[in-house]
From TrEMBL:
Superkingdom as given in the UniProt entry: Bacteria
A biological-process GO annotation: methylation
Record carries keyword Signal: no
Protein's recorded name: Class I SAM-dependent methyltransferase
InterPro entries linked to this entry: Methyltransf_25, SAM-dependent_MTases_sf
Gene3D superfamilies for this protein: Vaccinia Virus protein VP39
Keyword entries, A-Z: Methyltransferase, Transferase
Domain Methyltransferase per the UniProt entry, residue ranges: 60-149
Annotated GO MF terms: methyltransferase activity
Organism placement in taxonomy: Bacteria, Bacillati, Actinomycetota, Actinomycetes, Streptosporangiales
Length: 238
């Protein structure tokens, strides 16, 4: 499915009926051949927006998966780059793609770091956390950063009601909620649970100073607003 190198429909069904961790262990070898991987255009636009804000020393990719974000961090950071994920399968793929990066297997809701990084990023992971779990995630990133450190991630504008994508994403989220209501273990993967306003409020509650910048390279919506923004959450200096 998706390409000749991607997972089959049967493989996706098995993954969808697994836990998040085991599902990604199963999907990991073929993940980069699915639409679930963050597109290179978003990665490149993020790197371009972060470059003038450096230089950075140590970098952290939160929920690194197969390592797409590590590829963003490596040219931006002068020190060690670390990826954290709770899927051993995804970390194995990240090791192959980025052998010089440090990898840690842990739950992002309980990050095992304190004052260790100057830049943290995450790509495509927020939908794997329920809104009630975001405070723990963001507080952990805040602790992991040094004073003045930056947490950055792209976030898309909401789709208009007239867009086919609006209804496709709504349908996916409804199907996932039904799946989780009738099947255990749950598989948390939602596309419409992290709007910018709610994310901004949770970041501020964790202690961050939050701004956004448009990712102009990714285009505009019909009303002239950007299709994507880069969220920049700064840990206050000591």
């Amino acid at each position: 499915m998706f390409s000749s190198h991607g997972p089959s429909l049967r493989e996706l069904a098995i993954q969808a009926l697994s836990s998040v961790e085991h599902g990604y262990d199963l999907l990991a070898p073929k993940f980069d051949h699915t639409p679930f991987r963050t597109p290179d255009g978003i990665l490149d636009a993020t790197a371009d927006a972060l470059r003038p804000l450096g230089p950075f020393d140590h970098g952290l990719d939160v929920c690194c998966g197969t390592g797409a974000g590590l590829g963003v961090l490596e040219p931006l950071c002068q020190g060690r780059v670390t990826g954290i994920d709770f899927s051993a399968g995804m970390l194995a793929q990240a090791r192959e793609a980025h052998p010089d990066a440090h990898r840690v297997r842990a739950d992002a809701r309980a990050l095992p770091f304190a004052d260790a990084f100057d830049l943290a990023v995450t790509f495509g992971a927020l939908g794997h956390f329920l809104p009630a779990e975001r405070p723990a995630l963001f507080s952990g990133v805040y602790r992991a950063l040094r004073p003045g450190g930056l947490f950055a991630f792209p976030i898309g504008a909401p789709q208009p009601l007239t867009s086919g994508w609006y209804w496709a994403l709504l349908g996916f989220d409804v199907a996932m909620r039904i799946r989780n209501a009738v099947w255990r273990p749950p598989f948390v993967m939602y596309y419409r649970t992290c709007p910018l306003g709610a994310v901004r409020d949770d970041l501020a509650a964790a202690g961050f100073t939050v701004t956004t910048v448009p990712l102009k390279a990714l285009g505009q919506r019909g009303d002239g607003s950007p299709r994507y923004r880069l969220v920049l959450a700064r840990k206050t200096s000591a």
